[in-house]
Write a structure and sequence with these properties.
This protein is α/β, with parallel strands linked by helices. It has one domain: TIM Barrel, CATH 3.20.20. The chain is 43% helix and 11% strand. The strands form 3 sheets. Strands 3-4-5-6-9-10 form a 6-stranded parallel β-sheet. Strands 1-2 form a two-stranded antiparallel ribbon. Strands 7-8 form a two-stranded antiparallel ribbon. Helix 11 links the parallel strand 9 and strand 10. Helix 1 packs parallel to helix 11 and helix 11 packs parallel to helix 12. The longest helix has 27 residues.
Length: 357
């Protein structure tokens, strides 16, 4: 720790700040207390809080776990960063998708690689699935690391003006609760069919892993569609690994009365989300914990660890934590600084016992 008892750290929006050691410790305690109260789970122990403080106070710019504690890193289209524009965190190099994937695998020594449509949602993939199958197959012949296909369920695309169903966001303010619920159920049914259709097609060309990323982004009906799709794909494609990634630490009850296997989805916290994902047949669950931009890095990481630790303990399947732009304790930035990313990652693995990132 610096001799002046000040710790150089970040806020949730990425601002570089200096905090007193006691302030950092207070933030850690306050955050784990809040998470524990909200989800009705245990707080971090005194030893765990002290370990987290040591990680936050470590003067090195980048930190890492101890040898032997390394975990697997999965991704949701990291190779896109090579050819996407700088306005979205990319570097704008003229590479094809295959070239970017191979560069990511071979130059960056990636644990896994992935491919996805530029829109990164399943709805626009369905009309061009034959093209995607061809490119996936060709690229899979060139890769060595596990090669995933990823996209978001993104039920919002099924509502007007992008889709055929009336938008519940228009109906709810009018007090049309039943109508809003009905259109969500109809959209969820269509989404489920599309997820299963695309999943089966990709499985037919030897898909090494399907990533249903950010499930539940449009609320509990969105999550229901993803869970039911996983359950169906597990029957027809039993050997295809399926990652189900969450969209937040709390399932939004946009419908409010949706259930899966007799359990209400609205209001589920990460440990409950992980359990229901396991029950559906998911191979890996991706926990997503939102970052508060006006709180410190220590606060955000402590809160994330509290949720993650309980989720890991609740299931037998691996739990991979979403650690990126505005999730997993990482600041809300297009290109998060390495000091915050490595501290969040080390903490989630060493204290939260995450199986992967």
């Amino acid at each position: 720790m610096p001799m002046n008892n000040k710790i150089l750290t970040r806020m949730g929006d990425g601002e570089l700040v200096s905090m007193a050691a006691e302030e950092v410790k207070e933030d850690i305690s306050a955050a784990t207390r809040e998470a524990a109260q909200n989800a009705e789970i245990p707080e971090l122990t005194a030893d765990e809080r002290e370990t987290l403080f040591d990680i936050m106070a470590e003067p090195s710019r980048a930190v890492s776990v101890r040898p032997g504690q390394e975990v697997i890193v999965t991704d949701d289209g990291c190779s896109m960063s090579f050819y996407s524009g700088q306005d979205s965190g990319g570097v704008g190099v003229s590479l094809s998708r295959m070239q970017a994937i191979l560069t990511y695998e071979r130059a960056c020594a990636a644990d896994t690689t992935s491919m996805g449509h530029s829109d990164y949602s399943f709805k626009p993939v369905k009309p061009i699935i034959n093209s995607e199958m061809n490119e996936y197959y060709s690229t899979s012949m060139m890769t060595t690391a596990p090669f995933l296909y990823g996209a978001q369920p993104n039920m919002g695309l099924y509502f007007q003006p992008d889709g055929p169903h009336r938008n519940p966001a228009d109906l709810l303010p009018l007090g049309k609760i039943k109508e809003a619920q009905d259109v969500q159920e109809a959209a969820a049914a269509q989404l489920r069919e599309d997820l299963v259709y695309v999943g089966k097609k990709l499985n037919s060309v030897g898909c090494e892993g399907l990533n249903l990323d950010t499930a539940g982004s449009a609320g509990d009906a969105d999550l229901l569609a993803a869970l039911e799709a996983v359950e169906e794909l597990r029957k027809t494609a039993p050997d295809m690994p399926i990652i189900l990634g969450g969209s937040g630490e709390f399932v939004l009850g946009m419908h409010g009365e949706i259930s899966f296997k007799g359990q209400q989805l609205a209001g589920m916290y990460p440990h409950e989300q992980a359990r229901i994902a396991e029950a559906a047949g998911a191979s890996i669950y991706g926990v997503a914990i939102g970052t508060s931009t006006n709180e410190s890095l220590a606060w955000n990481v402590a809160r994330a660890i509290t949720f993650v630790k309980e989720a890991v303990a609740a299931v037998d399947i691996p739990v991979h934590v979403n650690v990126g732009m505005g999730v997993g304790g990482v600041p809300m930035m297009e290109a998060p600084p390495i000091d915050s990313v490595t501290r969040a990652s080390k903490s989630l693995v060493q204290i939260g016992k995450a199986d992967g990132l």
